[in-house]
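During the second half of the funding period, the structural biology subgroup turned its attention to how the target accommodates small molecules. The most pressing case was E6B, which had performed well in the primary screen but for which no bound structure existed. We therefore specified the complex as follows and requested a full 3D prediction, including the ligand pose.
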Amino acid sequence: NYYPWGYDSDNGPDQWHKNYPIAKGRHQSPIEINNKEVHYDRSLLPWFASYDPGAAKTILNNGKTCRVMFDDSFDRSVLRGGPLPGVYRLRQLHFHWGSSDDHGSEHVVNGVRYAGELHLLHWNPNYSNYLDAVRRTDGIAVLAIFLQVRKTPKPEMKRILEEINAIKTKGKEAPFPNFDPSILFPKCHDYWTYHGSFTTPPCEECITWIVLREPIMVSSDQMAKLRSLSKNAENEPELPLVDNWRPTQPRHYRMVSASFL
Ligand SMILES: NS(=O)(=O)c1ccc(C(=O)NCCc2c[nH]cn2)cc1
Ligand SMILES: [Zn+2]
C-alpha cells in the first residue's frame, strides 16, 4: 500500500529511508555549514546565470512546495562558472519554509536557520535528459538562496506571491510567463559549494550545491503568503503547507569550499 512521503511524523524525513534507501547515504543534503570547517578555495570562479525570461512556463502547487517550471528543451536559461565544468540548464525553482519566521531553511549556517530557502535547479545537458542526469554525480546543480525576514518586502518576490492565490491547493497550476529569476538574486555572489543530494526523496546524490552567503530580504507578510498554501487538494480538509524542509544531514568529512575569504 503506497504511502507518499511527506514532512509529518509518520511519513517524514526519519522515515524516508524505508522506501528510499539513498536517504541514508553519505552525501546527503542539506548540511550545517560552519565557518570553522569551510575551506577557502581561491581557484573557485564566479558563477553566472544567463536566463531567458521567455523560458518561464507555469507555477504549480504540488502539495510539497510552490514550483515554477521553465522550458529546458535547449540551452535557453543556463547557469555556468563557479564549481561547474560547463553550462547547466534551468529546469525549475521552488521554496522551503517554516511555520514561523524563526525557521524554515534547509541549510543552516553557523547555527543560524533562515525563514526559508529558494532553490533553482539546473541539469547537465551532457546527459540525454533530466532523469538521466539525476543518476550522475555531476548531473545536477542547485543554486540555494536564503530568505531572511526583515521589515522590507522584496519587491521582486511580488510576482510569485501574487500567483499564490491561483495555486492554493495541491495540483493547482497556473501560467507563469515572462519571468527572469535572476531578479531574485542578492547583490553579492559569494558562495559555498559542496557535493550532496536532493533534499527530498529519492534523495539521489547527484547535486553540486552552490549556497549563496547573502540572504535575500523578505517581509513577514511575504512569508505568511507562502504559508497560506495548502498541501491538500481542493475538495479535502485544509492542511497548511508549512515546514517542508529536511533537517541537516551528516557531513561525513565532505569538503565545503568557500569562494570568499
Ligand atoms: N530541494 S531540492 O533538492 O532542490 C529538489 C529539487 C527537485 C526535486 C524534484 O523535482 N523531484 C521530483 C523529480 C525527481 C525525481 N528524482 C529527482 N527529481 C526535488 C528536490
Ligand atoms: Zn529544494
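Two results from this model are relevant to the next phase. The helical segments are 16-19, 130-133, 158-163, 220-227. Residues 94, 96, 119, 199 surround zinc ion (ligand 2) (CB under 6 Å).
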